[in-house]
Amino acid sequence: MNDKFSIGGIEIDNVTFSEALERIVNLAQQHRSQYVVTPNVDHIVRLQEDADFMKIYQGAALSVVDGMPIVWASHWLGNPLKERVTGADLLPRLCEVAAQRDLTVYFLGAAPGVAQLAAERLQAKYPGLKVAGLYSPPFGFEKDVAECQKIIDLINHCEPDILFVGLGSPKQERWIAAYQTQLKVGVMLGIGAAIAFAAGVEKRAPVLMQKTGLEWLHRLAHNPRRLGARYLQDFGFFKIVYRTWREQRQSKK
Questions:
Q1: Smallest Cα–Cα separation from 192: which of 13, 40, 12?
Q2: pTM of the predicted model, to two decimals?
Q3: pLDDT digits over 93-146, tens only?
Q4: Which helix (DSSP H) or strand (DSSP E) does residue 73 occupy?
């Protein structure tokens, strides 16, 4: 079993959930403003045509698999990934470890009031959790230089060990990479809707759907207008898997 799994031009670290957790905590303690990416099928497809997004992925300190179809593909391609590691699962577990190891966290994203609710619920569940701060940016903030500078100043005032960025992809990854060198943090993670999940205002798919790779169907059913076109494009993933398989065969000849 290799340390990394390659597909679509990127490398994914082959780690268990526990191993990923420990490596992220180690990054947080280094306090060098590093970031973690969580590739799913949509990311793999997008990376093929988005050179800037590819550079962001290549600059990540850690890449952990968020999509079950990628895990299945890794088995078929002969280099099985150990385990799926989602941002939605990492957020509460990292908060648990942060409370145990005296690390601070910051929540950036979600609708107004949602991050506060998430913080309160997580602090109740994990006594001692230090939430250094939270902020819900206005729509379109990423195009407003003054607003971005305000956010940087808010975060740097706290210098959190772990920065959770829940802005949706690829916005969250682009924002993290754009301001990485200006932020005084330990480690940053783009975690999508995980803040809303932690607050209880949005519900994840049932566990069975998560384990069988059908979480996308749950999301599509709840937001067909926004996700329908995206998921149609994601069928391109199968072409990427097939191309990877062909490249492997040719390299062995």
A1: 40
A2: 0.91
A3: 999 999 999 999 999 999 999 999 999 999 999 999 999 999 999 999 999 999
A4: helix 68-76
Query: DSSP strand E in 111-223: where?
Result: 130-135, 162-166, 187-190
CB of 85 within 8 A of CB of 15?
yes
**45/84 Cα distance (integer angstroms):** 18
Q: Is 30 left (phi over 0), alpha (psi -120 to 50) or beta?
A: alpha
Q: Which residues contact residue 45 at a Cβ distance below 8 angstroms, ignoring those fewer than 6 apart?
A: 8, 233, 234, 236, 237, 240
155, 163 Cβ separation under 8 angstroms: yes
Tell me the per-residue pLDDT of 170-220, one tens digit each, with 9 for 90 and over.
999 999 999 999 999 999 999 999 999 999 998 765 666 666 665 655 564
Q: How many domains does the chain have?
A: 1
Domain of 142 in residue numbering reads as 4-252
